[in-house]
Specification:
This protein is mainly β. The protein has a single domain, classed as Porin. It is built from 6 helices and 19 strands. The longest helix has 10 residues. It is elongated and about 80 Å long. The N and C termini lie far apart (80 Å).
Length: 467
């Protein structure tokens, strides 16, 4: 009879849009539904989870004109045709430090039975990160150039305190995408250059969060109070994948002093494959023993990384002054859902709706040359967030619109070595989180209502050598 009573805990119904195979333990969704948040955003760098910090020179103008070559060699990240602007050989090394601040203020949190979830506000949720990149190019002939970039186009790191009020939604998140792109550019005519590249990308992802075993048991009639930290367990999901894509570009010079660049980075199909690991409380061990769930198992999560189209313009007003603008469109609506599957047959497949929207990035910038070997830069930008509403905004990724103010400068140390530096302050309006316990996948994570206040400081340094 005791065995039958424990088994009655297991096959509880799964509500919302999270789907599970009948008779299996949908409580595993407490861990796995957070994977969607793991793969959904940097804190204050760029909308979604894209990383814009690729060029110190262009960052000084808030990335204005980067698709038209304002970033020098590093402009090839967005437009491989800009390689045609470079004579001889070039090597560039860029490093950006992103120091983000996101503080959550809770208006209340409870499990699905209405029991309050207690805990702190999580501290500063994002972690400081360094974003390196490396570029190289060589001119084969007057019309042909080749290049190589090693970059991080997507990534973020966040982590709330262990006992914070949102622990069932998120603890630690880490995603890192490393991209290697060989490129070629052809000067087709005196006014038109074309470029292309092949992308090979390695993506690593890790997610941890607390598991509310008390609510799992209470939901099935066991007289245990949910949202009890003493009964919590922990889940850790990590994996990696190689994916492939391409980049295309065109650079038009309709007249001296005017450049128009158009760039395209393709979508990528990523299938994160790895392991889901569990650290169970005593109650979690009981659930695991009678059901076969909450044990280490292989896991897989598929996601489509979006394509991006960029348009950049630079215009020389005089030998000293240059103005630039940039427009980027990212197809984030491709990231509208996440499917997670498991090798353990008693752990249910999970479906989560994201409902992201496409986003745009717009910037304006200016460069002033007080001397032949000096460049001073400034720029502003608007970066549209991907969340449609508070009900789809997660505590793991509190995305919102962002506004940039940037300054920077460049100096030619010698005829063959240039250094660039930039500082950007990014600020965002307060954003709300309205996660309902009745929402998709929140049955055992509970409700969470509050707001985020976000900002970031980005400091970049770049060196470009000629040979």
């Amino acid at each position: 009879m005791q065995t039958n009573r424990l088994m009655a805990i297991v096959p509880f119904p799964c509500r919302g849009r999270t789907q599970a195979r009948e008779g299996h333990v949908p409580a595993v969704a407490v861990l796995t539904l957070g994977v969607a948040a793991l793969l959904s955003g940097t804190q204050a760098q760029a909308a979604g989870f894209a990383v814009r910090e690729q060029s110190a020179a262009a960052q000084g103008m808030a990335d204005a004109g980067i698709s038209a070559g304002s970033g020098g060699l590093s402009s090839s990240f967005y437009n491989p045709a800009t390689l045609a602007l470079l004579e001889g050989g070039h090597i560039s090394n860029q490093l950006a430090g992103v120091f983000a601040n996101v503080h959550y203020s809770s208006y209340g949190a409870a499990n699905e039975m209405g029991t309050p979830i207690t805990g702190g506000d999580g501290g500063n949720i994002p972690q400081d990160v360094m974003v390196p990149s490396l570029y190289a190019s060589y001119q084969l002939s007057p019309d042909w150039h080749v290049g190589l970039s090693v970059t991080i186009p997507f990534g973020f790191k966040t982590g709330g305190d262990d006992g914070w009020v949102g622990r069932y939604h998120a603890l630690t998140s880490d995603i890192e995408a490393y991209d290697i792109t060989p490129m070629v550019a052809w000067q087709a005519t005196p006014w038109l250059a074309l470029g292309a590249g092949f992308e090979a990308q390695y993506t690593y992802a890790r997610l941890t969060n607390a598991i509310d075993y008390g609510t799992v048991a209470a939901a099935n009639g066991v007289p245990i109070q949910g949202a009890n930290p003493a009964l919590d367990g922990y889940g850790d999901l990590h994996g990696s994948d190689w994916s492939y894509g391409y980049t295309l570009g065109a650079l038009i010079t309709p007249r001296p002093g005017t450049r128009i660049g158009l760039g395209y980075r393709s979508k990528m199909q990523v299938a994160i494959e790895g392991t889901a690991k569990f650290t169970n409380s005593s109650l979690g061990n009981v659930l695991s023993n009678v059901s076969g769930a909450f044990v280490n198992t292989d896991a897989r999560a598929a996601v489509t990384l979006p394509e991006t189209i960029t348009l950049g313009i630079t215009q020389d007003l005089s030998p000293e002054w240059t103005v630039a603008s940039e427009l980027a469109w990212t197809h984030w609506s491709r990231f509208n859902q996440l499917n997670v599957t498991y090798a353990n047959p008693v752990q249910p497949d999970t479906f989560t709706e994201e409902n992201w929207r496409n986003s745009i990035f717009v910037s304006l910038g200016v460069t002033y040359k007080p001397a032949d070997d000096w460049r001073l830069r400034a720029g502003v930008a608007y970066d549209q967030g991907v969340d449609e509403s508070a009900q789809f905004r997660t505590p793991r990724i509190p995305d919102s619109d962002r506004y940039w103010t940037s300054v920077g400068g460049g100096y030619d140390i010698t005829k063959w070595l240039t250094v660039d530096a930039a500082y950007t302050h990014i600020f965002a309006p307060d954003s709300s989180i309205a996660q309902s316990a009745s929402g998709a996948g929140n049955e055992f994570r509970g409700s969470m209502y509050g707001s985020n206040r976000a900002s970031a400081d980005v400091v970049s340094l770049g060196f470009e050598a000629k040979f």
